[in-house]
Amino acid sequence: MSASNQSLRDLPTDNWMSHLPAILQNLPLYHLAIPGSHNAITYCLDKNNSPMDLTQPDLLQKVDKYMKPLVRPFLYKWAVTQDSSVTQQLDGGVRYCDLRIAHRPNDCSSDLCFYHGVYTTVTVESVLKEIREWLDVHPREVVILSFSHFQGLNQELHNVLIETIKDVFTTKLCPKKEMVTLKNLWSKGYQVIVSYDHMAVSHHGELWAPIPYWWANKCKAEALIQEFERRKQQGRPAGFFVAGINLTEDLKYICGHPLESLKDLVMTTYPALLTWVMAQSPGSNSECINIIAGDFVTDSQLVSSVIALNESLLKCTEC
C-alpha cells in the first residue's frame, strides 16, 4: 500500500518522514505536524550522586543536603519527563528534541550534561553521537535539536558545545538559510536542524534562531488547552514553533499527591490532551500548529496522532 492511500498514522515510526507522500515532501517542515519530546534527556538523571541543579529553590537544596535519602526519591519521580532513551524516542517517531544543557558546578572538566532537578549521568557529546549513529541508519529522516536553558556555561563552554555539535554532525547540519523541505534536505544530505538559544547563534551559519515554545505553565489539561486556544487566536509564529502539551505541577499539587509521580499526572491527562491534539491542523494559516511536544512520548499515542494530522494537508491539495 502506498503512502498516498495509507493512513499516515500507520507509517513505521522509525522512518515515517521517508514514507510521506510526495506532496508533503515539498512543504516546509514548519508547515508540517511534527512530534516532539519535551526535556528529552531525563531518562538518565543521576539520582544519588549529582547535586541539585541551580534552578531549585534554596530551601529545597538545604533540605536535600541533610535529608538526601528522603528528598531524592521524591524529587526524582517529579523530575523524569521521559523514560525512554533518545534512540528509543527517535525509533518511536520523535523528530524534535528539547535539550536543556548544563555544566555541573565545581566540575573542572569541560564536559556538559543535561538537567532537570539534578544532572544526568550521560554527557551531551555522548547523546549527540548516539543521535548521529541513528541518523546514519536513517538517511531520510530529519531531526530538530533545540539547545536552550543553558546553565553554568560561559562563552568558552558555549564554544566547546558549538564545536562539538559541528564535529559530531558535520555535513548533516542544515544551514539556517536553507529551504527546509524534505525533498531539498534529502538532495543535499542535511538531516539536523539546530536551534540555539544564545547570542552566539549570530556567528554561526549552522545554528538557527531559538524556536518559540508555547508553555502553558498549567497542571490541568483543561487549563492548558484553554491557554493554547487563546494563543492560537493571536496567530502562529512564521517559522518553526512548538506547542508543548507538557503539564507543570506546582508545589501545592505535589504536596497534595505525595504518592503520585509526574508520569501518573501525565498519563491520566493524556486522553484529554490527545483529544485536543487530534482536532489541530498543520499548515500556514494563523491557527495552524507545527511541532507538538509532550512528556513520556513513547508511552502514549502522541506521536502517531501528530503524524496523522498531516493528512489534512493532503485533503487540502485534493480540493
Folded structure, characterized:
- The chain has 319 residues and is α/β, with parallel strands linked by helices.
- Helices cover 37% and strands 15% of the residues.
- A hairpin with a 1-residue loop joins strand 3 and strand 4.
- Helix 5 runs parallel beside helix 6 (155-169).
- The radius of gyration is 20 Å and the shape is globular.
SSE topology sketch:
Elements: H1 22-25, E1 34-37, H2 58-66, H3 68-79, H4 86-91, E2 96-102, E3 113-116, E4 118-123, H5 124-137, E5 143-151, H6 155-169, H7 182-188, E6 192-196, E7 207-208, E8 213-215, H8 221-234, E9 242-244, H9 251-256, H10 262-277, E10 291-294, H11 302-308, H12 311-318
Given the helix and strand composition, which structural class is it?
A: alpha/beta
Average pLDDT for all residues: 93
Order of helices and strands: HEHHHEEEHEHHEEEHEHHEHH
| Alpha carbon gyration radius | 20 Å
Number of helices: 12
Tell me, briefly, the overall form.
Answer: globular
Low-confidence stretches: 1-5
The largest β sheet comes out as: 10 strands, mixed
